[in-house]
């Protein structure tokens, strides 16, 4: 006992040392005012916000941004990039004479990929503007009422934070959106904006802003232009994972940029083929970002906080759910007051695990009812929140705010929480479903170990997926193995279950067996739970088939044992992947939700206006249908020996369809990939409100 206390004390001391060391490497040895910021603003940062010194990236970026140059900033997650770009803008704006007011419209535009990040940047901005009340902050984003946003834009917003779809909508349709004084455009999480499929929107935004921009030296007799003479328009691109994908955006929007945090291995004279949209008069000496893919890459390919402890846990598919619950229980028992985020690949998986963790009790059954009432408790004694793209905006907002405010809580999320979100005191990130590209791994784990704090990250892998570690290593992430068996051994066994001395496989561990049984019992006790499990199973398999590029050879859907996958959703048998009954259930669920007002009038545009069902025969000769003809056309060549046939709508003919696993699954999987889901959701946000707004306008709102 004494030995253990001594060891814990030693570990705590070591952790404290590590944090100090990492903090030493994070902060610059200067003050905010020495960077050239206005004293009132420096004071606000130091005194009111409690930032004693700028971080290194702030110390490097602020003077360059103040000088008016375009900038590309690449710095690790949680190093303070938001302040790095907001502070110089406020410094300039507060000094304008005459003072800026609402009638001058928007001077700075910050474009971010998700709604939560939009709100977060807005909150930071509000704090920074505390002493500059005449500068008006504001935001526009999908999911909000457009009529209200229009009214706010009409009044005037000096610094506007926006998601791309909604911003484009206002640029096109809100005549009162004043931006002729626009001087700054910032793309925060620039690579993500492009990866989420916003490339076209971004190009249009740049074009629309450019066409109405006030060019320097331009003859202009408009008295409303208040940008100081000689002040240059400035564009800033930032991310922890700037890579070659942003070259096109950089080329479109940046003029002779300064690169901050991009080491020489990533910057090369223009050798890479820049995409065909490159302007013919481009500068031949221009720098482009190039990610080093050599056999011996830099360990700093993507900036992962050095104090972050990264681990992986190898779990056979059938034991995944038990392993997840055990790891979580162990974490919260070890340290009650902490926050943990678990990432899943699909929204259905988030919903299922959220319901399960919010209701599942332990121990599962007792001898007498009185005893049961006295001893039963929730398996996890912490508040559990969920966050994903098809939640109602108000629910998203409250989940985000509540998880932020809690001291002890668990958040289950899709990648909607992976970028930029700054939840204080998150101690551990669990990636229960693999993230896909290494960039996403970096951003997910970046929700912990922020601003020099300690943090842990745990990646779940099945034995067949273990090669993913090599992919991460190429980008500088090396993970140690998590001692799962040791953790499982700590849990007390139920009743008189014998403790086996040597456990041969994880699945035969008595704790795993009893917990799995209890979970299955719980899931089957209520039809609602069972349906959630089935939906989660189906979308998980589809999501698995949607891995892209080189990762397809690691995450091979054909290698999955679907019975074991079912077990990981506490199902005793494998449900049909897309049977008629499932299709009907999904339609019914959506109808019910719509009636309850949970899915207000989402309009999905199908190409050609008339959707038809297609069927394709996979190599295993089972039938799979796809509702989106474009998707099938794209995937058809990759189906190999698969036959292809056009069928009437199943609901017309009333035949049941079974899905085949393999190439055809991959085809449907692509439609349920997280990225395209989230992007589609966010884009819908722009359209979704149209009808609502028309209605409101008709009512004279
Ligand atoms: N100079 C500073 N001193 C102390 N804390 C700071 C400082 N600057 C910023 N912070 C805090 O650090 C946290 C991380 O900042 P921020 O969210 O801007 O990081 P980021 O680099 O944008 O991360 P990501 O890449 O994940 O988006 C925030 O809570 C912020 O308030």
TrEMBL record:
<dbReference type="Pfam" id="PF00270">
    <property type="entry name" value="DEAD"/>
</dbReference>
<keyword id="KW-0347">Helicase</keyword>
<dbReference type="InterPro" id="IPR001650">
    <property type="entry name" value="Helicase_C-like"/>
</dbReference>
<feature type="domain" description="DEAD-box RNA helicase Q">
    <location>
        <begin position="30"/>
        <end position="59"/>
    </location>
</feature>
<feature type="compositionally biased region" description="Basic and acidic residues">
    <location>
        <begin position="10"/>
        <end position="20"/>
    </location>
</feature>
<keyword id="KW-0378">Hydrolase</keyword>
<dbReference type="Pfam" id="PF00271">
    <property type="entry name" value="Helicase_C"/>
</dbReference>
<comment type="function">
    <text>RNA helicase.</text>
</comment>
<protein>
    <recommendedName>
        <fullName>ATP-dependent RNA helicase</fullName>
        <ecNumber>3.6.4.13</ecNumber>
    </recommendedName>
</protein>
<feature type="compositionally biased region" description="Basic residues">
    <location>
        <begin position="580"/>
        <end position="589"/>
    </location>
</feature>
<dbReference type="GO" id="GO:0042254">
    <property type="term" value="P:ribosome biogenesis"/>
</dbReference>
<dbReference type="InterPro" id="IPR011545">
    <property type="entry name" value="DEAD/DEAH_box_helicase_dom"/>
</dbReference>
<dbReference type="InterPro" id="IPR014001">
    <property type="entry name" value="Helicase_ATP-bd"/>
</dbReference>
<dbReference type="Pfam" id="PF13959">
    <property type="entry name" value="CTE_SPB4"/>
</dbReference>
<dbReference type="GO" id="GO:0016787">
    <property type="term" value="F:hydrolase activity"/>
</dbReference>
<feature type="domain" description="Helicase ATP-binding">
    <location>
        <begin position="62"/>
        <end position="260"/>
    </location>
</feature>
<dbReference type="InterPro" id="IPR014014">
    <property type="entry name" value="RNA_helicase_DEAD_Q_motif"/>
</dbReference>
<feature type="region of interest" description="Disordered">
    <location>
        <begin position="667"/>
        <end position="701"/>
    </location>
</feature>
<comment type="similarity">
    <text>Belongs to the DEAD box helicase family. DDX31/DBP7 subfamily.</text>
</comment>
<dbReference type="InterPro" id="IPR025313">
    <property type="entry name" value="SPB4-like_CTE"/>
</dbReference>
<feature type="region of interest" description="Disordered">
    <location>
        <begin position="1"/>
        <end position="20"/>
    </location>
</feature>
<feature type="compositionally biased region" description="Basic residues">
    <location>
        <begin position="597"/>
        <end position="606"/>
    </location>
</feature>
<feature type="region of interest" description="Disordered">
    <location>
        <begin position="577"/>
        <end position="611"/>
    </location>
</feature>
<dbReference type="InterPro" id="IPR027417">
    <property type="entry name" value="P-loop_NTPase"/>
</dbReference>
<keyword id="KW-0067">ATP-binding</keyword>
<dbReference type="GO" id="GO:0003723">
    <property type="term" value="F:RNA binding"/>
</dbReference>
<dbReference type="GO" id="GO:0003724">
    <property type="term" value="F:RNA helicase activity"/>
</dbReference>
<feature type="compositionally biased region" description="Acidic residues">
    <location>
        <begin position="686"/>
        <end position="701"/>
    </location>
</feature>
<feature type="short sequence motif" description="Q motif">
    <location>
        <begin position="30"/>
        <end position="59"/>
    </location>
</feature>
<keyword id="KW-0547">Nucleotide-binding</keyword>
<dbReference type="GO" id="GO:0005524">
    <property type="term" value="F:ATP binding"/>
</dbReference>
<keyword id="KW-0694">RNA-binding</keyword>
<feature type="domain" description="Helicase C-terminal">
    <location>
        <begin position="320"/>
        <end position="491"/>
    </location>
</feature>
<dbReference type="GO" id="GO:0005634">
    <property type="term" value="C:nucleus"/>
</dbReference>
